[in-house]
Amino acid sequence: MSDWPLPFWIAHRGAGKLAPENTLAAFRLGAACGYRAFECDVKLSGDSVAMLLHDAGLERTTNGHGRAADQDWKALSRLDAGSWHGRLYAGEPPASLEAIAQFCIANRFALNIEIKPTPGHESATGEQVALAAERLWRGSQLRPILSSFSPSALDAARSAASELPRALLIDKPQADWLDIAQDLNCVAVVANHAIWQQQMIDTLHQAAMRALAYTVNDPATADWLTRLGIDGLITDAVDRFSPDTGKACASPMDPGVCSSGTHDR
Predict the structure, then answer these.
(1) Residues noted as catalytic
(2) Which of 26, 131, 166, 181 has the most beta carbons within 10 angstroms of its beta carbon?
(3) How many CB atoms lie within 10 A of CB 85?
(4) pLDDT in the model for residue 264
(5) What is the pLDDT of residue 246?
């Protein structure tokens, strides 16, 4: 893929450990730490609005109850998605994909959208998220990548917006991972860092695809994967890894790291 949009270091769920995950607050903190590429989870509200949320249920990361898929966006947008993380973020609302798109486009940040369907909504979520992404990034030179653990969601995304690049997510070793990625015309495979092997990365590169790893939070793992030839690392540790050098800083929130910067690898 000649116009690969992602730099080497990618912030997981914004800066989803230091701020409430999948919120604009998390994206802003990741940007303050110098990151210019982000990963987030996107699913559909009950009225098919693309929104950021990892779980099917609302309880872990908001003051809401039940499934997001059973509630309309007007109600969901009024929830508190920050207090669970601390008083500093009390009142932080859930983020729509539209709000994240505006933030990323304005700052020329890259985005990996993980399509995270509520169980039973795989195809509909893939289709609607892809259509929303195609509309929101229309005219932008930096297109988002659509990734998912669900082949059905990726297939629906391909049918809805074939020009947007796709990546297959895998958490455990499976014999048919390459066949699935190729059948879906994926440009990358994003896997649990623990399952990567040299042969897997070499096979992907020979197939003209990229290899990315999640969630890499310690220097030893980052160094090992870099030596294997990994193409990108998704991290929670935005305060401990410089996106410019890839090196771990001496202490969390080192001023030399948490400042604006770029990484062109």
Answers:
(1) 12, 54
(2) 26
(3) 20
(4) 31
(5) 66
